[in-house]
Amino acid sequence: xxxxxxxxxxxxxxxxxxxxxxxxxxxxxxxxxxxxxxxxxxxxxxxxxxxxxxxxxxxxxxxxxxxxxxxxxxxxxxxxxxxxxxxxxxxxxxxxxxxxxxxxxxxxxxxxxxxxxxxxxxxxxxxxxxxxxxxxxxxxxxxxxxxxxxxxxxxxxxxxxxxxxxxxxxxxxxxxxxxxxxxxxxxxxxxxxxxxxxxxxxxxxxxxxxxxxxxxxxxxxxxxxxxxxxxxxxxxxxxxxxxxxxxxxxxxxxxxxxxxxxxxxxxxxxxxxxxxxxxxxxxxxxxxxxxxxxxxxxxxxxxxxxxxxxxxxxxxxxxxxxxxxxxxxxxxxxxxxxxxxxxxxxxxxxxxxxxxxxxxxxxxxxxxxxxxxxxxxxxxxxxxxxxxxxxxxxxxxxxxxxxxxxxxxxxxxxxxxxxxxxxxxxxxxxxxxxxxxxxxxxxxxxxxxxxxxxxxxx
Length: 458
Fold this sequence. Notes:
With 458 residues, this protein is mainly α. 60% of the residues lie in helices and 4% in strands. The protein has one domain. Strands 1-2 form a two-stranded antiparallel ribbon. Strands 3-4 form a two-stranded antiparallel sheet. It is globular and about 60 Å long.
């Protein structure tokens, strides 16, 4: 049953006080999604989420003060427990686990504040989107906005391919003092660039990142958004949108392969398999033929183009495997040492996986000092927030999948597929901020799909 926060006491019948509007405008959510390329170019990018959370929170509080109840998403108790675990784990911020760089708690506070602020802002986004009615923000429009962001992701991937070293100084970056904007963490927030340049298969090559900042985030968002373009296109009877969607998905194969992102490839497989199983269970056996045809087309495309050579080269060169294994071991060891509340945040290792003497330097920024908890949301949850935080986080999304399991609509299947893909992605991708935002929007669509079936729930 959906949680409801009681409204304010009804005003007296003869009160002369002006009525406060109880409707919620769609622009805080719509502007984030529709204008995201602009926010990225301005240097606001992921910062737009906490910025827009402020008016969203004000509007929610104003509506509740006007006497209209505030709905909370099903399973919100799990998410509230997670937020509490994040706060409580801060008490361990000063601890220095074995094998990590010794720092003062205050040196780690900036990342903690940023992460906590992100969780709070995205929580507001979830509640606000779930409280919007069909008249305020139709679900079809929200689906189209998410589909638009998939198109933006593909376009960013193509940009990263053809202009891998493209970057520029954003207006927000120009406003910052030089010593602040030169910080790596700040650069990742305000400095737009098309791709990350890495040596994975022999020689440095660009890996698409725009407009999401990192190649791994680009791949994660690719999987979370790809289903929505199908839902948006097949939600209309016109042939044009369907043709454009198929064309976009076909073109998307190229940057997806060039990204050399094995996690993305697995994520696409998880989404396709989940959607196929859901359709088979509903008796729609035609999906088997559709998947087989798409798979055959993909095999032909890889065999007839240089893309196949890239896939084989990436599978034969697992340079990151050793680092990932090393960091997973460190995360599990740290979890065993502080299993209840974790350490409040990530930690940097002393040296690299082969020697404590190997560390970051001006000549080698990627040498050693790896981040424990930086190679997957699951490992970060375990290491930073312990059992309580991990169980609560997984409990919230797991509850949502169970609660909305009977939703057989296109929105229901796509929303569930996005959340399922996030469970596989958390083994190698971190979720904040944009992947978690898209997970929340998928959750909100599932929640609203459930509510719209009951006229009294609006």
